[in-house]
């Protein structure tokens, strides 16, 4: 088995310690950091990073900024954004920045742990956007995409209908 490296970023030392131990149990080598800057320094020189778990609120940047930077550097990483805020708009932003999983604290850590133990990383990464909250894991469906699709369908139907209309005949 290759050495799977995980990065855990949380500004609360107790949370960081818990998450590091949890992910180590899933057979990862874990690097921990309490800030965005420390996280970027921790992965400097790495060619590959299998897993990233980022807290949304950090002292020097937010989790979305860090997610964007890490996604650029490690395009195949499995990135999890963890927060206490169960807000759809925040989910949209996180997935837009490149995260794979939006985890609502304090729920979901054991679901995540079970997924890490039982699933290959490449299978996890191909699952699409997932939300893990008090209801368990579920696929996230973007309202932005649905709205765009609905708008395109409506416009296409309108164009189709209007092209069938004949211009009024002149008297």
Can you characterise this structure?
With 171 residues, this protein is of the alpha/beta class. Helix content is 46%, strand content 19%. It is built from seven helices and seven strands; from the N terminus they run βαβαβαβαβααββα. It has helices spanning 13-25, 36-42, 63-73, 88-97, 109-118, 121-125, 143-164; strands at residues 5-9, 29-33, 51-55, 78-83, 101-104, 130-133, 136-139. A hairpin with a 2-residue loop joins strand 6 and strand 7. It starts with a strand and ends in a 7-residue tail after the last helix. 29% of the residues are buried.
Please write out the topology.
Blueprint: E1 5-9, H1 13-25, E2 29-33, H2 36-42, E3 51-55, H3 63-73, E4 78-83, H4 88-97, E5 101-104, H5 109-118, H6 121-125, E6 130-133, E7 136-139, H7 143-164
Parallel strand pairs: 1-2, 1-3, 3-4, 4-5, 5-6
Antiparallel strand pairs: 6-7
Quick gist of this model?
The protein is an alpha/beta fold. The protein has seven helices and seven strands, in the order βαβαβαβαβααββα. The chain has a seven-stranded mixed beta sheet with strand order 2-1-3-4-5-6-7, sandwiched between helices.
């Amino acid at each position: 088995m290759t050495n799977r490296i995980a990065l855990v970023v949380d500004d609360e030392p107790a949370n960081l310690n818990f998450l590091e131990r949890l992910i180590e149990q899933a057979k990862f080598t874990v690097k921990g950091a309490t800030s965005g800057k420390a996280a970027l320094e921790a992965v400097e020189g790495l060619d590959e990073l299998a897993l990233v778990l980022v807290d949304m609120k950090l002292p020097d940047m937010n989790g979305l900024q860090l997610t964007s930077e890490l996604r650029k550097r490690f395009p195949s990483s499995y990135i999890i954004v963890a927060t206490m805020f169960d807000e759809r708009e925040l989910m949209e932003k996180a997935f837009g920045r490149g995260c794979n999983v939006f985890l609502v604290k304090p729920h979901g850590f054991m679901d995540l742990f079970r997924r890490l133990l039982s699933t290959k990383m490449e299978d996890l990464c191909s699952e699409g956007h997932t939300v893990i909250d008090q209801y368990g894991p579920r696929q996230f469906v973007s309202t932005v995409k649905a709205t765009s699709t609905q708008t395109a369908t409506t416009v296409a139907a309108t164009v189709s209908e209007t092209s069938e209309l004949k211009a009024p005949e002149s008297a």
